[in-house]
Amino acid sequence: DGGITQSPKYLFRKEGQNVTLSCEQNLNHDAMYWYRQDPGQGLRLIYYSQIVNDFQKGDIAEGYSVSREKKESFPLTVTSAQKNPTAFYLCASTALAGQPFTGELFFGEGSRLTVL
Amino acid sequence: AQSVTQLGSHVSVSEGALVLLRCNYSSSVPPYLFWYVQYPNQGLQLLLKYTTGATLVKGINGFEAEFKKSETSFHLTKPSAHMSDAAEYFCAVSHSIITGGFKTIFGAGTRLFVKA
After folding, report:
1. Which of the residues A42, A88, B54, B62 could staple to B108 if both were Cys, CB 3.0 to 4.6 A apart?
2. B46 touches chain A (CB under 8 A)
């Protein structure tokens, strides 16, 4: 079945370490997104990419980095510069062409990062 | 700027009672509006969406929402709550951006509790 796969589902990190969260989709979607979810704050956009080898900062990009070398993959690195990285991270995707342009997002199951 | 306000971070209803989750938005252009549901430690799933046309939209699991432009509202309802409806619900608005894609803004979420 088509969908978005995030891994790992749970991750523990020591302070000062970088960690990379994986996001893979087989929906042939053009755009991919990373959101951070904290209790009571909804979802906040970290980075997004509309095409391979291009990406833009979202509202809370500081301390994060991404790459988009393949259409199917959009990994997120949480760097040691991120002051409060403990959160639930969600990857999403959507098509931009070939169908009505509505902005409906398809989500992965999420990755929960805990900094010890 | 677009924004979404969900009234009430927690709503509690009895099984079989009406569910009403409130959402107000602001948008400088005709909006695409969405309700998503999230179960614990999972990603978000689309419940329903409004793009154009009929202002009363029906979604999965018996939910529906009505777009009221004059009130800038998109409240979610279900006539009879079921225990399985207990989850967190997010209202969202998407809008186009200069680079040709779009961004989605989420409300803070409303957690629905269903009492037996």
Report:
1. A42
2. yes
- Compare all CA atoms of chain A with the CA of B30 and give the residue at the minimum distance: A102
Residues in chain A within 8 Å Cβ distance of B34: 103-105
Cβ contacts (< 8 Å) between A68 and chain B: which residues?
none
Q: 3-state DSSP call for residue A17? A: coil
Of A50, A104, A109, the CB nearest to B99: A50
* DSSP bridge partners of A93: A32, A106
Three-state DSSP state, A3: coil
CA dist., res. A16 & res. B107, Å (int): 32
Contact B101 A96 (CB under 8 A): yes
Q: What is the pLDDT of residue A35?
A: 97
Measured CA to CA, the distance from residue A13 to residue A114 in angstroms comes to 6
pLDDT digits over B57-81, tens only?
Answer: 999 999 999 999 999 999 999 999 9
- The answer to whether A112 contacts chain B (CB < 8 Å) is yes
CA–CA separation, A37 vs A111, rounded Å? 10
User: Would you state the structure tokens that stand for residue A112, as one six-digit string?
Assistant: 């929960």
- Is B16 within 8 Å of B115 (Cβ atoms)? no
